[in-house]
Amino acid sequence: MRVLITGGAGMLGRKLTRGLLERGHLRGENIDAIHLVDLVEAPVDSEVCAAHVADLSRPGEAEALIALEPDVVFHLAAVVSAEAEADFDKGMAVNLDGTRALFDAIRRSPAAPRLVYASSIAVFGAPFPDPIPDDFHPTPLTSYGTQKLIGEALLADYSRRGFLDGVGIRLPTISVRPGAPNAAASSFFSGIIREPLNGLEAELPVGRGVRHPHASPRAAVGFMVHAGEMDTAPLGGRRNLTMPGVSVTVGEQIEALGRVAGPEAVALISDSPDPAVADIVAGWPPRFDTARADAFGFVADDSYDDIIRAYIDDDLPHRM
Amino acid sequence: MRVLITGGAGMLGRKLTRGLLERGHLRGENIDAIHLVDLVEAPVDSEVCAAHVADLSRPGEAEALIALEPDVVFHLAAVVSAEAEADFDKGMAVNLDGTRALFDAIRRSPAAPRLVYASSIAVFGAPFPDPIPDDFHPTPLTSYGTQKLIGEALLADYSRRGFLDGVGIRLPTISVRPGAPNAAASSFFSGIIREPLNGLEAELPVGRGVRHPHASPRAAVGFMVHAGEMDTAPLGGRRNLTMPGVSVTVGEQIEALGRVAGPEAVALISDSPDPAVADIVAGWPPRFDTARADAFGFVADDSYDDIIRAYIDDDLPHRM
Description:
2 copies of one chain form a homodimer.
Chain A: E1 2-6, H1 11-23, E2 25-26, E3 29-30, E4 33-38, E5 49-53, H2 61-66, E6 72-75, H3 81-86, H4 88-107, E7 114-120, H5 143-160, E8 165-171, E9 173-174, H6 187-197, E10 202-204, E11 211-215, H7 217-229, E12 240-242, E13 246-249, H8 250-261, H9 263-266, E14 269-271, H10 275-282, H11 291-295, H12 304-314
Parallel strand pairs in A: 1-4, 1-6, 4-5, 6-7, 7-8, 8-12, 9-11, 10-14
Antiparallel strand pairs in A: 2-3, 11-13
Helix pairs in contact in A: 1-7, 4-5, 6-8, 8-12
């Protein structure tokens, strides 16, 4: 079993790699090789892993990777939302052209590997019903969401034609993200939990009534592995699935922090309304009915308390 | 007012050209030029028109057309469904790369013209609710439908960013199509009406209970002109609209033929079941609730009888 992970140096790519190394097997076979592809060299701490520095959108680079004959490809590489909005050409090159180059390299190869595509709930845009059903139309409000939606459409058609065996998983907002805050409008969803757990102050730019679905990095790795293993025949032509998440308000996130880490953690959060962030977040989906993903065996975190505990167990630099 | 029509040599392109010449104005301005772009030279019978032979997917060709500074672009050029299924690379080149090249040429120009994009109900794939609402998710079952869906996603994002001012119109099956039958699975929808009106026998490959939405070429031209003129501000981010059609069963089409042309026309139709065609058609949408397009002022034919009469008035070579 050979695995290829694009975006292998990223947070989810590294956690997926660790998860696969711990399991040791995928689809009933021992994992012999994990090829980690990224624009920078991915850290490698196992003989099973190999790092490849490559830009999928450049001619020939996707072909060279597919020549490694992976049995399962996890396509996580992407320019994130804020960057794809700020640099339109770069977002199109990486998120659309890079994805198409990867799919076409597979199409021109003799194999039709399982391909797990990390899509996003950013394919959806307000206004929404509550909850949002599985058959609701995607109308992205960002270039990132548009590019992810196009990737989904290509994935479904390339699967239908037998070029590859695709599963697209629309990830909820991943929290609690480890590491430093970033410029993304969604950064505060993790920041209001992560910073207090690290003894730091955190600012909340939106109202406490804002509702949003979340998944821990641990749950996201579970989704990816399950998408790599599942029987795709029952999916029919509908290869893209909205993943289950824990839908909570910001107020409920903060209550969970209080239960897990005490009132002194909560006291580090201060309200600092930012109308620009609030406007962006108002276009985001609050809650999904993920009946289809549930029926296919994808499992969310149990609660936001568990999401916080997963961060403490897996990522908190200095335990409390 | 300068107009550019891609696919200008095709059936809808020629009918749109005639409609614009008869009106003489668009968006409150006199039409000074209609540039007809196609892979073959479009027929030109007015000093207002000019034919341009071009392949949009080739470097520089879209830029040369946009240098003509059109105020309104009707993008109708496409490889049709059957051909896009048989020749994947050609469908991707024309329907996806050609569309993107056109949009990018506009993006790099100083102007942001109105762009009317001929999409298709082929963006939808079974299973369906009845009727299919405006917010139902597109899950195409053909490469053509996939490519049209990607065009819709690009149109919406390029509009959101202000690169162009797009309206995507999802056309129902166009009937009665003039001319010879073609290899498309949908050919019979027109054939069972057109051939008897021309004194020829017609074969019906599906059951008479099959339901499908139709629009006359005349109604389709009306949709295109309205999409060229309408105020797009109320569309918000949702730039793609399912057009209203006349949803009838094949049996109801034949009853309408009897009312308009008499029992001798109906007698020319014979049932000749073709399971391959029936299978394809079973994946197609039967009926839409087009509340959104209705509210924005798009108007369907009144009845299938009227659709037949439009063919007799506009296209029947020898009047009955």
